């Protein structure tokens, strides 16, 4: 099985006709994703040939959903237009909106996050500033390479795109049910806890790998959730042990202020909840493999 994204998911791409949107639409199609349309009001009614596949372009998310039955949108629009694109997806009540765009103003992310809540959270938001998600062998919504891993029993949730790819590659012999890159901005849609709950409920996921990083308290809250609600083995990694205080590292949300948000504090909280925490990504992969072998 998979979480959030399956072989039956019908995907549209907001911003498909731009350079990034087209590049990754081509990659998603090549990996087997059902891309059923693009959205660009200025090019509505046209079709785009993507490596031999004719993909229609619609004027709005609502029109695309009506014509194709789409239930997922992947958003590749510039930061200043991202809030409007996400609000449009929410208004259309599409089931999943994957916001790839980096550099979205935090107040815009907070605004569309709150708007989704005011509309009953009918649209799950992943991101912004994320690599998307993949259910290997089924569907790929975003920019995650489709050829670095296989289908298997591991569920992965990560703030970091690069570390998502590394763990997927290092554990490719075991494989993944789904990998979800939630993004590292201060305000995001789907959280570690959301993914943990979904993996806990997924019978095909046997082990969960959770990648966090310095800044905020998301990992501490995830640790508390694991202690109360997760029965499956969890392996963790926290990026940023050597980050200097007060300096943003990579992601906008990865900043330590005083003793708040440090990698050590997150590691201790996770270990207190029974999570095995690796000191490096490779050690984390080794711990996951050991847990898998022990559970056989």
UniProtKB/TrEMBL annotation:
<dbReference type="InterPro" id="IPR017440">
    <property type="entry name" value="Cit_synth/succinyl-CoA_lig_AS"/>
</dbReference>
<comment type="subunit">
    <text>Heterotetramer of two alpha and two beta subunits.</text>
</comment>
<feature type="binding site">
    <location>
        <begin position="17"/>
        <end position="20"/>
    </location>
    <ligand>
        <name>CoA</name>
    </ligand>
</feature>
<dbReference type="InterPro" id="IPR003781">
    <property type="entry name" value="CoA-bd"/>
</dbReference>
<dbReference type="Pfam" id="PF00549">
    <property type="entry name" value="Ligase_CoA"/>
</dbReference>
<comment type="similarity">
    <text>Belongs to the succinate/malate CoA ligase alpha subunit family.</text>
</comment>
<feature type="active site" description="Tele-phosphohistidine intermediate">
    <location>
        <position position="251"/>
    </location>
</feature>
<feature type="binding site">
    <location>
        <position position="43"/>
    </location>
    <ligand>
        <name>CoA</name>
    </ligand>
</feature>
<keyword id="KW-0547">Nucleotide-binding</keyword>
<comment type="pathway">
    <text>Carbohydrate metabolism; tricarboxylic acid cycle; succinate from succinyl-CoA (ligase route): step 1/1.</text>
</comment>
<feature type="domain" description="CoA-binding">
    <location>
        <begin position="4"/>
        <end position="104"/>
    </location>
</feature>
<keyword id="KW-0436">Ligase</keyword>
<comment type="function">
    <text>Succinyl-CoA synthetase functions in the citric acid cycle (TCA), coupling the hydrolysis of succinyl-CoA to the synthesis of either ATP or GTP and thus represents the only step of substrate-level phosphorylation in the TCA. The alpha subunit of the enzyme binds the substrates coenzyme A and phosphate, while succinate binding and nucleotide specificity is provided by the beta subunit.</text>
</comment>
<keyword id="KW-0816">Tricarboxylic acid cycle</keyword>
<dbReference type="InterPro" id="IPR005811">
    <property type="entry name" value="SUCC_ACL_C"/>
</dbReference>
<feature type="binding site">
    <location>
        <position position="165"/>
    </location>
    <ligand>
        <name>substrate</name>
    </ligand>
</feature>
<dbReference type="Pfam" id="PF02629">
    <property type="entry name" value="CoA_binding"/>
</dbReference>
<dbReference type="GO" id="GO:0004775">
    <property type="term" value="F:succinate-CoA ligase (ADP-forming) activity"/>
</dbReference>
<feature type="binding site">
    <location>
        <begin position="100"/>
        <end position="102"/>
    </location>
    <ligand>
        <name>CoA</name>
    </ligand>
</feature>
<dbReference type="InterPro" id="IPR016102">
    <property type="entry name" value="Succinyl-CoA_synth-like"/>
</dbReference>
<protein>
    <recommendedName>
        <fullName>Succinate--CoA ligase [ADP-forming] subunit alpha</fullName>
        <ecNumber>6.2.1.5</ecNumber>
    </recommendedName>
</protein>
<dbReference type="InterPro" id="IPR033847">
    <property type="entry name" value="Citrt_syn/SCS-alpha_CS"/>
</dbReference>
<dbReference type="InterPro" id="IPR005810">
    <property type="entry name" value="CoA_lig_alpha"/>
</dbReference>
<dbReference type="InterPro" id="IPR036291">
    <property type="entry name" value="NAD(P)-bd_dom_sf"/>
</dbReference>
């Amino acid at each position: 099985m998979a979480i959030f994204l399956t072989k039956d998911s019908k995907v549209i791409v907001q911003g498909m006709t731009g350079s990034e949107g087209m590049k990754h639409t081509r990659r998603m199609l090549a990996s087997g994703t059902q891309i059923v349309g693009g959205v660009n009001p200025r090019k509505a009614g046209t079709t785009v040939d993507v490596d031999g596949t004719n993909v229609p372009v619609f004027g709005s998310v609502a029109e695309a959903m009506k014509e194709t039955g789409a239930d997922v949108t992947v958003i590749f629009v510039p930061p200043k237009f991202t809030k409007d694109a996400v609000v449009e997806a929410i208004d259309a009540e599409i089931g999943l909106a994957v916001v790839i765009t980096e550099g979205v103003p935090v107040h815009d992310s907070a605004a569309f996050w709150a708007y989704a809540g005011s509309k009953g959270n009918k649209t799950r938001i992943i991101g912004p500033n994320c690599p998307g998600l993949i259910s290997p062998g089924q569907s790929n919504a975003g920019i995650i390479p489709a050829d670095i891993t296989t289908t298997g029993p591991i569920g992965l949730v990560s703030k970091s795109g690069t570390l998502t790819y590394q763990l997927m590659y290092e554990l490719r012999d075991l494989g993944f049910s789904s990998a979800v890159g939630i993004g590292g901005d201060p305000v995001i849609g789907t959280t570690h806890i959301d993914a943990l709950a979904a993996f806990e409920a997924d019978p095909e996921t046997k082990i969960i790998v959770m990648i966090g990083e310095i800044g905020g308290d998301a990992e501490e809250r995830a640790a508390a959730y694991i202690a109360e609600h997760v029965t499956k083995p969890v392996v963790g990694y926290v990026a940023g042990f050597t980050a200097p205080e007060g300096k943003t590292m990579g992601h906008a949300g990865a900043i330590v202020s005083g003793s708040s948000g440090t990698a050590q504090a997150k590691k201790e909280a996770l270990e207190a909840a029974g999570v095995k925490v690796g000191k490096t990504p490779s050690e984390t992969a080794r711990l996951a493999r050991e847990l898998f072998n022990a559970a056989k």
